[in-house]
């Protein structure tokens, strides 16, 4: 189970999750509390708590990664796919403005060829 520790100038933070007694969990400076994986997922999505975690005010130990880490190759492929999708959208818009019909599933190369034909 993830363990949260508060450091910095804050004396304490009331976390937006309820403890076993039904009361909100309180994170006191210098103390460590355990939260469930479900609570950790909720806290990680909370914008204020996430900002504290990202800035290092709250440290989290023993948490499972909420998102699987991506390899550099996967990240690069993702960026390239987004760039290609943007190019395809641009070409589709240009062809639509010219009144040229095209297949919605056309590849980038097919769309580029249609644009080249329309300009010739």
Fold and architecture overview:
- With 120 residues, the protein is an alpha+beta fold.
- It has 4 helices and 5 strands.
- It has helices at 37-45, 47-55, 72-97, 108-119, and strands at residues 3-6, 12-18, 24-28, 32-34, 58-61.
- The strands form 2 sheets. Strands 4-1-5 form a 3-stranded antiparallel sheet. The protein has a two-stranded antiparallel ribbon with strand order 2-3.
- Helix 3 (72-97) runs parallel beside helix 4 (108-119).
- The relative contact order is 0.13.
Give a brief rundown of this model.
This protein is α+β, with helices and mostly antiparallel strands and about 120 residues long. About 45% of the residues lie in helices and about 20% in strands. The chain has helices at about 35-45, 45-55, 70-95, 110-120, and strands at about 5, 10-20, 25-30, 30-35, 60.
Helix-strand layout with pairing:
Layout: E1 3-6, E2 12-18, E3 24-28, E4 32-34, H1 37-45, H2 47-55, E5 58-61, H3 72-97, H4 108-119
Antiparallel strand pairs: 1-4, 1-5, 2-3
Helix pairs in contact: 3-4
